[in-house]
Amino acid sequence: MTTLAWTDKLVLNQPQLDHTHEEFVGLLNAFGAALDAGDDALPAYHALLAHTEAHFAMEEDWMARCGFEPVNCHASQHKMVLNVMREALRYATELKDREPLNILRTELAGWFPQHAEMMDAALVFTMEQLGFDPLTGERREAVAAGESGSGCGGSSCGH
Q: Where does the record place the Hemerythrin-like domain (predicted)?
């Protein structure tokens, strides 16, 4: 059983981010397959967690370079997801309770498409508007003194 299918709906037309997202989906599926097979899913989970930490750090670096506020709803969502993932790992290793891992697989599969379609799409849009090149870290437009991007790249964020 596939935990989350990679589909065109997840493509944001930003090659580096699309590649990272496809890797996330593959690692989530490998983790889910290990759970389904009754194998020790911790190695697959560790790989998923390490990827997710690097994935979110990459996006947050881009946000900083694009002038997003240091505390914003996109980065806050990343922090929340990583906290839950780390807590599930603690339950599995310290308390020998693997049930949070099963729950988290389902929750990540439901959360990720919505996050990509809203938060990550807004980040990509902002990057495009500023002419930001994630490979070089350079941008066409400089942020005006004192100006920062909204909390999540959109005008509706309360930050």
A: 16-122
DSSP 144: P
Residue 144 has pLDDT above 90, yes or no: no
Q: How far apart are the first and last CA of the chain?
A: 40
Ordered by where they begin, the domains of the chain are 13-129 (1.20.120)
Q: Are 159 and 148 in contact (CB under 8 A)?
A: no
Report in angstroms the alpha-carbon separations of 146 from 63, 81, 122.
16, 30, 21
> Which tens digits make up the pLDDT trace of 85-134?
999 999 999 999 999 999 999 999 999 999 999 999 999 999 999 999 99
Tell me the C-alpha distance between 3 and 143, whole Å.
40
Burial of 42: CB neighbours in 10 Å, binned 0-12, 13-18, 19+? middle
Q: What's the whole-model pTM score?
A: 0.88
C-alpha separations of 18 from 26, 37, 148 in Å: 12, 28, 25
Return all residues near 127 (Cβ < 8 A) that are at least 6 apart: 14, 62, 66, 134
Cα dihedral sign for 80, 133, 13, 30? Answer: negative
